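For the sake of clarity, the format in which proteins appear in this thesis is described at this point. The record quoted next illustrates the convention:

___
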Amino acid sequence: MRLIRTAAKWLDDRLQLGAPIRGTMEHPIPKDTASWFYVFGSAAMTVLAFQLVTGILLAMVYVPSAGEAWNSLQILNHQITLGWFIRALHGWGSNFMLAIVLVHMVQVFLFGAYKFPRELTWLIGIFLLLMTLGMAFTGQVLRFDQDAYWGLGIGASISSRVPIVGPLLVKLLLGGPIIAGATLSRFFAFHVFVIPGLLIGFVGVHVLLVLKVGINEWPMPGRLVRRSDYVEKYHTLTHTDGVPFVPYGVWKDAVFSGLILLAIAACALYFGPFGPSGQPDPRVIQTAPRPDYFFLWLYALLSLLPPQLETPVLLIGPAIALAVLLGLPFFSGEGEKHWRRRPIAVLTIVLVAVSLGTFTSMADHAPWSPVMDASTAASIPPSLLNGRTPLQIQGALVFQGKQCHNCHALGGTGGQRGPALDAVAVRLTVDQLVRQVLQGGGNMPAYGKNLNPAETTALVAFLETLHPPGSAAARDASQGPAQP
């Protein structure tokens, strides 16, 4: 013991951490705050640390390469001792962390903990929620199975619709204009370095604000928040009816965090890891990709919305929601905290919960929008083949062989996942057709790696013929006026 005390004193003389640690342990909190309702923040931090540990173990085996990622997960699942269990712990830890952060945000909202003087604490909490969602999405992409591939394509499609910066966002996410080898490396960097680094930094600031500003007191009916005297009243409360965080508050945090870790381990042991499903292949479109649980509501919303409403809802809805959340502590920073006297706040939570729950349950039955019900065997109308050159006939064979008919209709037959192509040559020039086929765009995946140059040339030659009789094909206006 004497040796331990000597070593501890030697370290403290140089690091000077003893006083801050003691101050943190002894800082007073309102007695009613040492409650089971205030354990979610600490539990989220515990699960974050747990995710970092399991993520480091997985990164020792995982290969962030489009050609090897799927195989490395198979090795973890079947060849490395307890590799499947580590994957399951990490996957279920992600779900639990997101659920705890959401519950914590709801509790903070209902308890009025965003009000003065905790505005910045709330704002950082919003960014922590967004980054937690980012961690969940990038983690799903790293599985790089069929669901991840199509989910990434949908995510890129959503990003591309952002005005002005849309193309830049797509290049930032994908590492280029298409899903390729650089894409997985980019998401690996986001998932392992960028987002965790931001999470750790913002969590540190969040905890510092909790220590400096104080933990929100238990809301009492009639105890109003006023900027003029709240801080003074709070300090009086902590001195007259306060208890030190250790041991009065910390033991509940420790017990709840321990139960959460046990629940994660139980789910991992019973349900196992998430995926991977089939290997990613843009040619296999007879698939109904499903995102992870917390994104199912968005999947159902996109599936059920009319196509013309997708872009406005995707761009305007999140912007309004984020603006309301960020502005909440500034236009509602004073007044009542107790939920019984804030019926609008309670009604808002109920409506959001019911809406998200409804869309999540509908995701099991919602079709992947637009509906695709065509068959590869659907024939190309003879009128589109008569009088065509051998190269154009070869392009029609490529169109049929690569299952383009499953997504695109010709002459009223074929799929409706993509637009009908009867007049595509009127809308797109030759260069634009080539770029669309190779790089994809919208909800269409890139086929650059699945078509050789001869197949691409033949396919575009066939697509050039698809325009109504008497209508001129699209042309590049920069090449000067059309010749008579």
